[in-house]
Design a protein that fits this description.
globular; alpha/beta; Rossmann fold; 19 helices; Helix Hairpins; 621 residues; 6-stranded mixed beta sheet
Length: 621
């Protein structure tokens, strides 16, 4: 059954045609990855499919519920709790409709609603808490208007998932999520029973979730059915090879027919008129769209062996909270260090100390004498929304210096795929990807030998992402990059610096090594907790301390029996968690019809039960 059908969609921005007569049909349960260059119209198409925008021409038919995760969300209500509770109003409405159908003795409608409630759950309170916790949402009483952009995005993502729509439309859902949360989201989307249309720069997520790819190319949609992201890359190159051959044949025919027409034959026979019509047809045929690409030739000119930064015994705290404790780190040319860890652990603080915006509490940061820093911060704060593209790139000058050569600003921007008609466009009107591309252009002008990049992949299209990766691989300076993009870390970084909590940072050879270390620590913590509980259960009762002025409350008979039984209950609960984790680690659950979302919720509930039992044991002990 089709859940979305779009027909003859056309969108114009001024004289520019963004989408030209696009048709798209999406079947129930489909997993569609929507790809294309920045500015190609992906977000516009997504908003049209969601019903958030109206096309200049064409129609969209969608009988079911659709929910869109926007890049710039608006949260209803005053607090985070208001926004989350609003997201599950559909559930109260469905329960009320079910009760009304029973009262009216409309058994067909009651049966339909009961099936939906069986599928999505009869109670959603635990889902609200679970998803909000897994996404790292702010507390329920936090005021939404005071939250950062990243915090608002996480709440918006939670709201979108909680609404259980028939069609889930996600625009860059991994922005502002840490690696562990992205992996959880990946599992959630694999088990989602509805339809998903996804725009993302996270190639691992796209590979894991999408079962077909739709590319927006030159205003048209090119569909790669039954294709993962890897399949799409291969099929796309094969398609372009065929099109290039066809285009070469078309141009050859045009040259032949034009040469014949130039000889001005005296008699205009029917055959000759047909050849002239054929020439007109060949000329009017839409040419093969050119591949949009650019280069980012980052060069530092540094000699190998030079020391760029030395950090010795660096510590940083805020109040009682230690972010960085006794860090030792040396940066030399060729180092590309990926910085990973949960949100709020201090990754951005480390970059700010390297730039001198913040000072360490203890220790020293020694910067090399020839160090020139290029910074790309997460807020993209270097850009002024009121500037035009021309002003932002050239600082008001007509020419910019690239290496040893001066070139006109328009030519320079054209290298980064900005069109001439965009020159006087305000920065505020650029898409997130275009803003990122502009900052990369400015990074090239700076001539830095140390690049500090805070979430550089946010909002980048896959083409620009590959260009940035290639530029960093060839860069002869040093790079420190905070990112949760797993593919980016694996391809670019020579080492990974992991924030492990309580101010501890460890340098690993790769992301995989850091991940294995975290799993080992988690396993050790679980073993130690289990051993402590068993040891406490077997230990003799402590000698009572001298009675205070007010006697302490004694355990009742039932509480003593409860305390004796708790160690066994804790062990059983932990075995249940381990069994669920073993099941979730089996890849076949994503293809055999298992309800992965329900399994994830069961795992979360089991973990909470273990925590509850430990808390009860501590209280009674």
């Amino acid at each position: 059954m089709q859940v979305i059908r779009a027909e003859s969609i056309e969108v114009r921005f001024g004289d520019r045609i963004v989408l030209r007569g696009c048709d798209l049909s999406v079947e129930e349960g489909a997993r569609v990855g929507l790809v294309g260059a920045n500015g190609s119209g992906k977000t516009t198409l997504l908003r049209i499919l969601a019903g958030a925008e109206t096309p200049d021409m064409g129609d969209v038919f969608a009988p079911g519920r659709r929910e869109l995760l926007s890049q710039d969300p608006n949260l209803p209500g005053i607090t985070v709790g208001d926004a989350l509770d609003d997201a599950v109003r559909w559930h109260a409405d469905r329960l009320a409709a079910y009760e009304a159908a029973l009262d009216a003795e409309d058994m067909d409608e009651a049966a339909r609603l009961q099936a939906l409630l069986d599928r999505d759950g009869w109670e959603v309170g635990h889902q609200v808490n679970s998803i909000a916790t897994r996404l790292g949402c702010a507390p329920r009483d936090a005021i939404s208007a005071r939250l950062s952009g990243g915090e608002k995005r996480r709440i918006a993502l939670a709201r979108t998932l909680l609404q259980h729509p028939d069609v889930l439309l996600l625009d860059e859902p991994t922005n502002h999520l840490d690696a562990a949360t992205v992996e959880w989201l990946e599992g959630f989307l694999k088990g989602y029973r509805g339809t998903i249309i996804l725009v993302t720069h996270d190639r691992y997520l796209l590979e894991a979730v999408a079962s077909e790819i739709v590319e927006v190319e030159d205003g048209l949609l090119v569909r790669y059915a039954d294709s993962s992201y890897t399949d799409y890359l291969i099929a796309r190159e094969e398609r372009r090879a065929r099109m290039e051959k066809s285009e070469a044949n078309r141009l050859s025919l045009i040259r032949q027919e034009a040469a014949w027409a130039a000889r001005s034959p005296s008699a205009r026979t029917t055959k000759q008129k047909a050849r002239l019509q054929r020439l007109d047809t060949l000329k009017s045929t839409r040419p093969l769209p050119q591949e949009s690409t650019f280069k980012l030739p980052l060069k530092s000119g540094m000699k190998l062996g030079s020391t760029l930064f030395e950090l010795h015994g660096v510590s940083k705290s805020y109040g009682d909270r230690c972010l960085i404790d006794d860090l030792e780190l040396i940066l030399t040319p060729g180092d590309r260090i990926g910085v990973v860890g949960p949100n709020g652990t201090g990754k951005t603080t480390l970059l700010r100390m390297l730039t001198g915006q913040e000072e360490p509490d203890t220790g020293s940061i020694v910067k090399g004498g020839r160090v020139r820093i290029g910074l790309l911060d997460q807020a993209r704060s270097e850009l002024n929304d009121d500037d035009t593209l021309f002003e932002a790139a050239g600082g008001g000058n007509d020419e910019v210096k690239v290496g040893d050569t001066w070139i006109h600003v328009i030519s320079f921007l054209n290298r980064f795929l900005f069109r001439r008609e965009q020159i006087h466009q305000r920065v505020a009107g650029l898409s997130g990807g275009e803003r990122a591309r502009l900052l990369l252009a400015k990074l090239l002008l700076r001539g830095a030998n140390v690049l500090l990049l805070d979430e550089p992949t946010n909002d980048l299209d896959l083409l620009t992402l590959r260009v940035l990766e290639q530029a960093l691989l060839q860069f002869d300076g040093s790079v420190v990059v905070v990112t949760h993009d797993r593919a980016f870390l694996d391809r670019v970084c020579t080492q990974v610096l992991a924030f492990e909590g309580d101010g501890q940072l460890t340098l690993y050879a790769s992301r995989i090594q850091a991940l294995e270390a975290e799993k080992a620590r988690a396993s050790k913590r679980k073993t130690e907790s289990k051993a402590a509980a068993k040891a406490a259960a077997k230990a003799p009762a402590p000698v009572a301390a001298p009675a205070p002025a007010a006697p302490a409350k004694r355990l009742s008979f039932n509480e003593k029996r409860e305390l004796e039984a708790l160690p066994e209950k804790i062990e059983e609960a932990e075995q249940q968690v381990e069994a669920l984790e073993a099941k979730m680690a089996d890849p076949s659950i994503y293809t055999d019809g298992t309800d992965v979302a329900a399994l994830t919720r069961k795992h979360e509930d089991a973990n909470k039960e273990v925590e509850r039992l430990y808390e009860r044991w501590e209280a009674l002990s």
